[in-house]
Amino acid sequence: MKKIILSAIISLSVLVTFSCQKGDGEADYGNSFIYMPQSMVSGGINNYYNVPSGGAENTRNFKVSEENVDIFLGVMLSGKKAGEGFSVNIVEDSEASASAATSLGATVLPLSECSFPSSVEVEAGKNTKTFYLSIPKTFVDKNEGIYVLALRLDSPSAYELSSKGTMVVVVIDTDAIKNIEE
Questions:
Q1: pLDDT 10s digits, 43-65
Q2: Where do the DSSP E strands lie in 104-163?
Q3: Cβ–Cβ under 8 Å, residues 144 and 174
Q4: What is the pLDDT of residues 59-110, one digit of tens each?
Q5: Local structure of 11: helix, strand or coil
Q6: Which of 25, 35, 53, 165 could form a disulfide with 39 if both were Cys (CB 3.0 to 4.6 A apart)?
Q7: Listed residue (166, 43, 176) closest to 96, CA to CA
């Protein structure tokens, strides 16, 4: 019985050793989809992206200049494949903004008080690109409370949009931003 078990173990070891070729872990598998990583911050519970995300220096998801508060956002292509470049439009989703404002007891951030690119272009050979939702610092300084803005991806030039993670609701706590700044 011991010889049979030992033979089986040796046979399995040899099989496992020679069945995987070097680099199999780096191969491209599956499909590539475009999404916004910030929409996944809650672990799929909702699309809320809280700004600030925390009080410590290393958890800041925004930067402050003399003119603006720039909130970090991005576009990403899933998978290891980084080949063909692509672009995708960034649009405000007024229905999602209004719904989030109602459920959070917040105010929709006026489009006149912010800016973001109408499209983002990811270069060939890359799979991600950062962009900003910019709010004038004077708006943050003069206003209190929670503001929300829903942004979604639309009309990719290549690849497909993911079935999830293509919309993010940016939840901006102006009071917390001011407290961190000080």
A1: 767 889 999 987 666 668 999 99
A2: 107-108, 119-122, 128-136, 146-154, 160-161
A3: yes
A4: 689 999 999 999 999 999 987 666 788 999 999 999 999 999 999 999 999 9
A5: helix
A6: 165
A7: 166
